[in-house]
Amino acid sequence: MGQIKVLDENMINMIAAGEVIERPASVVKELMENSIDAGATKITVSVEDGGRKLISVADNGCGMDAEDLTLAFESHTTSKIKGSADLLGISTLGFRGEALASIASVAQVRAVSRTKDSLCAYGIEIDCGDKGDITPCSGDCGTTIQIRDLFYKMPGRRKFLKTANTEIGHIIEQFIRIALANAFAAEAAKLDMTLIHNGKELYRLAARQTLHQRIADLFSSEIADNLIETESSEKGLHIFTLLGKPDISRTNNNLQYIFLNGRFIRDKFISHAIKEAYHGILEPNRFPVVFLSIQIPYSEVDVNVHPTKIEVRFYNANLVHSQVLGCIREKLLSSNLETGGKLPATSGGTEQIAATTSPHGRSQKIADAMAEFFQKYRPVQTQQLSFSAESRAEKSQTTYEAAAEYPAHSMQNGKKFLQIHDSFIVAETDDGFAIIDQHALHERIVYEDLVRRTSAGKLESQKLLIPEILEMTDAQADLVKANAELIEKLGIELTPFGHQRYAVQAFPTIIANAGPIEFVRDLLDLLDNKEINSDSGKLLDEILNMAACKAAIKAGQKLSDREIEQLLADKDAAEYAARCPHGRPTTIKFTISQLEKQFKRT
Ligand code: ADP
Ligand code: MG
What we know:
The protein is of the alpha+beta class. It starts with 8 loop residues before the first helix and ends with a helix.
């Protein structure tokens, strides 16, 4: 007898649920998308215990009549497509007709819905696929769906749910994606959206708020205030984007949001275009904050390639890549990327980027600096002198005296040095001279110091006179709790300070000149990075790296002679001073014999 059996409908739905419904956040996503497809202008999401106990989504959309309400929970039932032709131009968020059936097969569901023509609402209850009767009941126009005890009959799946804090973190992320997608979608009116957890309101976003205000509410005003807006409309592609300035860059790409026709997506072509566009504007290990929305004809993209529709297939991916890259790059190159006076004092604008981007620009800068140096310290007489042996002696005499006018430019051992462009130090060596990148070198020195101190115990810290307050999501607060020991070891004291806020009370002395808020924010990003945090050694190293970078002397910072002397002395004492912790060189050396060869003296 054959082995193959036709699965019953509930089994089919449970299997589908395995793909679509991973955790409470997936339920929230599916229900919110249904509300948007139903034309709602107001959605209230209320969850308990991270959605493990209850998820309720209420909208004021078109509602369902009694007949649709029963059908909605059957598998493969949808009002959004009628025939195969519709699949070629999907404009709704849903279309697969399996979300409600999947959810109802793995939880207890109660749905109440009313259309605007109906005198009353209708309700239905389903318990893990076991459907009750439709009953008339009271209720406003629109739909409310409540999901209780997700996976309660599937201990295997239930076990994989994480703590309420982690689950609400995922729900918040879905809520943010939908709130942003809605704010960016050109044709859609903005929604009034609320998210409540355990009776506490986490977000209330008003329909009439500006995009700037919405981003400030969802993230922070610092992020909202540091975005550059640009738009392009070419070759059937409309791109609207908000580009984060380098000051608010991150250690991961969590704050890159890409939307396609009002749907949050992940796309490797677009991510790559963003990375390329910021090339040379950000350090290689930093990620820009970017909000990007693309409107493209529905026929130009296939959204039916992934069960949760997070990935799509562009029919002309190269075009999308080049348009996104061009649009962003052009804007960045023509923008002044300085903000809040935190960056080193440079001229800004296009030339600045061009100069720091290309390797050629960098060497040109050094060459200019060298030229300026020799111009400045060349004694006037040498120009009139001929190069006789005698005059050479005279010249060197004069040069020495000129240098002697700046006694502090010599070290105790008699070697001369000079800071150029407030960024590089030119120092005499036994057999020539060296050019030192002051930031890279100091970064290495601070890093080694941090490694020594953390391996010996905890970093010494100092109390802040005025505690600095930072906002955190519940997921971040979770990270703080989970990593309490590490945070203490770093000499950081963080205490809760009201709703979703923490105060930095104490901060490590050795990195005192880094901003505590910025530091803690980047620390949280590292703690949240799965690739890094799975290995505690690597995690600590990344943190110390980041700390060293923040605390080190910056390029563009004027140093006193004493500071330069100290830096050079520390260089000699350092274990591996040649490269900064990221692997870039700290020092470029030149020998006299090299110079002689270049000047054709030998
Ligand atoms: P899909 O969204 O892919 O069509 P679902 O299983 O999510 O599939 O929903 C099935 C159908 O139920 C939808 O096509 C829609 O007609 C109806 N429906 C679901 N949620 C709502 C809602 N909040 N308001 C009105 N109708 C809804
Ligand atoms: Mg749906």
